[in-house]
Write a structure and sequence with these properties.
Elements (H helix, E strand, L loop, with lengths): L19 H11 L4 H7 L4 H9 L6 H10 L4 H10 L17 H14 L4 E4 L5 E4 L1 H6 L5 H4 L5 H6 L11 H19 L2 H11 L24 E5 L2 E10 L7 H4 L2 E7 L2 H10 L2
Antiparallel strand pairs: 1-2, 1-5, 3-4, 4-5
Length: 277
């Protein structure tokens, strides 16, 4: 499983550039895109991009959103760019428990239930779990109450020494994968809340889980790094897949991710089908 922090998705503005020009330049440099390359993508000129970044020109709302799209700026940060340029935010941030989100919640619940007996969950921008199916509940059997108190955090549940970590047979590899995943997201999203979660879980002690067959180099036909985790005396193997929403128009929706754990071998599939029947 991939997996309390500061306000969800919020950034510490003291650490970041202010004003639309410096903000835009910061995103361009993060994406390692030159002014000329961005201009070609956005059907503009390097001169105009330079004028916007130095404050000599105020971009139109449409042009600014076009640049943000070509720079793959997260939806939350597109609102920040608009505000910095003197425009109203374009994208709403609707709480998931709002009645307007009822259809989305129902769809997510049906999706998770339909994936059973295999584990699946939905997390937000800081890996807090907003929905999960019975497959996930099975994996969490026996964890201490303080880890299961809301809000559940997938990274904390997975890497905490009292969480799933002692049950993960290839913990060092899986931990490295998760931390690298979070590092990439922090670099792209500028999220202080996510950084706080990362610093917490990265500081957890890592016990030696012993030698696993996978670690020992046994020939296993895995096509991706598996999560190998013990449950009731059995070692289950999963491949993780993460999905997000295309063309989101709401910050909350843009920051949701659906993780499904696909059985990586026939034995795991058979065990889950028997256990969840």
């Amino acid at each position: 499983m991939t997996t309390a922090a500061p306000a969800k998705g919020k950034n510490n503005t003291a650490e970041h550039a202010t004003g639309v020009g410096p903000l835009l330049r910061s995103w361009r440099e993060r994406r390692r895109v030159s002014q000329l390359e961005l201009a070609l993508r956005a059907d503009s000129s390097a001169r105009h991009i330079s004028f916007v970044e130095t404050g000599r020109s105020r971009p139109s709302e449409e042009f600014l959103l076009r640049l943000a799209d070509h720079l793959d700026v997260p939806v939350r940060e597109r609102n920040s760019l608009l505000l910095a340029a003197g425009y109203a935010p374009r994208f709403r941030e609707t709480p998931l428990d709002d009645p307007a989100m009822g259809t989305l919640r129902e769809g997510l619940e049906q999706l998770l239930a339909g994936y059973e007996p295999y584990p699946a969950l939905v997390v937000d921008a800081t890996y807090d779990v907003v929905a999960a199916n019975r497959g996930i509940s099975m994996l969490l059997d026996g964890l201490p109450g303080h880890l299961l108190a809301p809000p559940l955090n997938a990274m904390r549940l997975t890497l905490h020494p009292e969480g799933l970590a002692p049950r993960i047979r290839n913990l060092r590899e899986w931990r490295g994968h998760l931390l690298h995943q979070m590092e990439r997201q922090i670099a792209l999203q500028r999220s202080d809340a996510l950084r706080a979660v990362y610093e917490e879980v990265a500081a957890y002690p890592v016990a030696d889980p012993g030698v696993d067959a996978f670690e020992a180099g046994a020939e296993v036909p895995y096509f991706a790094l598996p999560l190998r985790i013990e449950h009731d005396g059995h070692v289950l193997s999963f491949i993780s897949s993460i999905s997000t929403f295309n063309t989101p128009m709401d910050v909350t929706v843009a920051e949701l991710a659906i993780e499904t754990l696909l059985p990586a071998d026939p034995a795991t599939s058979k065990y889950l089908q028997a256990h969840m029947s």
